[in-house]
Write a structure and sequence with these properties.
alpha/beta; Rossmann fold; 3 domains; four-stranded parallel beta sheet; 16 helices; binds 1,3-dihydroxyacetonephosphate; binds iron/sulfur cluster
Length: 335
């Protein structure tokens, strides 16, 4: 027999529109934030948000951080529900490491170009060509790719993860070739790279960054390692989103040109209100390419609907969870 929660869920599913969104009412704009806070409390839910989210979502979050911080936080969540304001692979990781929790993602279409650049069947064939290699995968990949991996890493701990592998061991690194090339330089290890990339970090223009740096001679140029190597070669500092945030707080410079998704400028400005942060310019002047369109699919309205109706939910085959968990746990044990 259906209980009232099931029938409410079925009603919500029945109201999905052609694009798969819940076509249900939301409170007026000015009432959204208190309504979301109330739902979080009433449902014993926590909101996790990545630095690339809209400011309003960052401000509402219980946990705000980079991929590594959010994965570690998800492992220890005791609340019944995790609402993940980030992209699909991040919510999926939370489900894999804390599978008894209900994990919600405000927009299931919030994917990742990097994760999409590594289809599991193609990757399994690639892996089969190098049967002796240890597979290190960047966390920006699907659960199926994680299940094909030996150890996962993020941009915060990638060097430590690679250093933990014996020197003579052959390594496959996937899916980001830019991060992979950077790690080859940093660790001196000759890794076999998968040919994937992030559309946001590949959009930065080397020539325009040089021109902007000339116009701001005191500014330091900082970049996320998903950026292309010619961009990384001119950076004063390269690091994960949390690494970049740490750098701007500890470095004496007062002006920074920042090559990563523009959402992080909000937290940078909050941490250092007296300093100036300039988003790095992109190739195409007509687009907002330094914004990750996937990350920005999450809105307050969708967050409200997702909490109210507990949809869309991340569901995974328990066997896949089991296989994908090992490489994540191996990473989490590295301190
Ligand atoms: P961080 O782990 O550095 O936050 O990176 C996440 C990401 O998606 C970068 O594009
Ligand atoms: Fe994926 Fe790039 Fe967006 Fe990060 S910025 S979530 S790597 S598409």
């Amino acid at each position: 027999m259906l209980d009232s929660r099931d029938s409410a869920k079925n009603n919500a599913i029945a109201s999905l529109d052609a694009k798969g969104y819940l076509a249900l009412p939301v409170p007026p704009k000015e009432e959204l934030v208190p309504a979301i806070k109330k739902l979080l409390k009433d449902k014993n839910a926590v909101l996790m948000a990545h630095y690339y989210q809209n400011e309003s979502i960052q401000e509402l979050s219980d946990y705000l951080g980079d991929s590594l911080y959010l994965a570690k936080a998800a492992e220890n969540v005791e609340a019944d529900i995790i609402v993940f304001a980030g992209v699909h692979f991040m919510a999926e990781t939370a489900k894999i490491i804390n599978p008894t929790k209900k994990v919600l993602l405000p927009d299931l279409k919030a994917g990742c170009s990097l994760a999409d650049s590594c289809p599991p069947t193609d990757f399994a064939a690639f892996k089969a060509k190098h049967p002796n290699a240890v597979v290190v995968t960047y966390i920006n990949c699907s659960a199926e790719i994680k299940a094909l991996s030996d150890i996962v890493c993020t941009s915060s701990n990638a060097k430590q993860v690679i250093d933990s592998i014996p020197a003579e061991q052959e390594i496959i690194f996937a899916p980001d070739k830019n991060l992979g090339r950077y790690l080859i330089k940093e660790t001196g290890r000759d890794m076999i790279l998968w040919d994937g990339a992030c559309i946001v970090h590949e959009a930065f223009s080397f020539e325009k960054i040089i021109a902007l740096s000339k116009a701001h001679p005191k500014a330091k140029f900082i970049a996320h390692p998903e950026s292309e190597s010619q961009v990384l070669d001119i950076a004063h500092y390269i690091g994960s989103t949390s690494g970049l945030l740490n750098f701007i707080q500890t470095d004496p410079a007062t002006e920074f040109i920042v090559a990563t998704e523009a959402g992080i400028l909000h937290e940078m400005q909050k941490k250092c209100p007296e300093k100036t942060f300039i988003p790095a310019p992109v190739e195409d002047d007509t687009c907002a390419c330094s914004e990750c369109a996937f990350m920005k699919l999450n809105t307050l309205e969708k967050l409200y609907l997702c909490l109210e109706h507990e949809l869309p939910e991340i569901t995974l085959d328990p066997k896949l969870i089991e296989k994908a968990r090992n490489p994540i746990e191996r990473m989490l044990k590295i301190r």
